[in-house]
Amino acid sequence: MIANMVAVLAMTPAAAGLPAAPAPSVPAPSDVRVAWTSAAHTDVEITWEGTAATRSRLTLVRAGDGVTENLAAKVVEAGRPSRALLWPGLHDTDYRVRVVAVDSDGAEISEPAFSPVFDTDRGPKARIVSVVPREDGSILMTWRPGAYTDPNPGDPLDVPGPVRYIPVATLFEFNEYDDLAAPTTATSFVVPPRRTPVGVGVRAESVGWYDDSGVDAPVAGDRLTATIPQQATIGGTVTVTGRSIKLGRLCDRGPCPTVEEDDAGRELRLEERAGATAGWRTVATAKARKDGTFTLTAPFAGTRDYRVVAPVLALAPDRAARVRAVTAATTTTGVTGPAGDGGSGGGLPITGAPVVALAVGGGLLVALGAALTLTGRRRRRR
């Protein structure tokens, strides 16, 4: 035992002939607190007691291992109020604020004090349950709030109540989102008609932490064309051919050009009506071939208007949701003898965009990407 004490004493600065470390010269700060500055939960204020006569230095340390975060220290000069705002850009980590008195050279002259542990967790991602486009172009989406276990319940920055979510939709030409409504505890929302392809979803309401947690689901667009004969023999058949193209988004960190792919397997309907005031009825159905082409054939009883419809498809695990696409109505005149060759009809769908415009627009988007990022509108990055 005596030998161990001698060994310990031999390790002290005095025994080694070194000057002893100076004792703290001022009382340690106390009552370090963190609190939201308002009910909006956008900024956090740090306050403490006991160092108004000296300079104070604040650092942010991780609660788990005590390591100082790589952020510039905050220094509050003597005579100034003992308060400062929390560092921005924090998320998904538990922290404490360390406060210590320092001299004019930055040397610590007191013992440190710490705030209570607080987390900076963002709201949990919701889970998209369904995305169902409607015939009027709107999109009904439903979601389920994400599960969350608070690692530090009761900390001073916990926000009471359930997580609220903000419905969002992507911009057509850029990799960002529009907020469509105020934060809500509802679990469904109808997205007004938007140009497709588009992504729709929700993001958790931000409470001061960096960025937010969101989720979205794709809604693909369509480019549908059809050739409908101008004449057909009464008592015979009418045959319509065409092609269905699926439109998707190919986004990088800026522009989002539209990409096309053959719409293999797309369900299609041939509809007819007896006149402009009559209702439409389905007379034939088919699925697009591997290359997106299709053929629809139906009995022909006399002069009729025809159109091709690609119906809406709800989101499914193996596919994106699809909006409704419809070709322009074309009149096929009934004749008693052999019908003339060819004829044209169809046209552009009521959704999507002409391919020439897409090709030109895609090139321009790259050049305009930098300018778009400087727009004054408030956006949320995907």
Automatic annotation (TrEMBL):
<feature type="domain" description="Fibronectin type-III">
    <location>
        <begin position="28"/>
        <end position="123"/>
    </location>
</feature>
<keyword id="KW-0472">Membrane</keyword>
<keyword id="KW-1133">Transmembrane helix</keyword>
<feature type="signal peptide">
    <location>
        <begin position="1"/>
        <end position="16"/>
    </location>
</feature>
<keyword id="KW-0812">Transmembrane</keyword>
<keyword id="KW-0732">Signal</keyword>
<feature type="transmembrane region" description="Helical">
    <location>
        <begin position="355"/>
        <end position="374"/>
    </location>
</feature>
<dbReference type="InterPro" id="IPR003961">
    <property type="entry name" value="FN3_dom"/>
</dbReference>
<protein>
    <recommendedName>
        <fullName>Fibronectin type-III domain-containing protein</fullName>
    </recommendedName>
</protein>
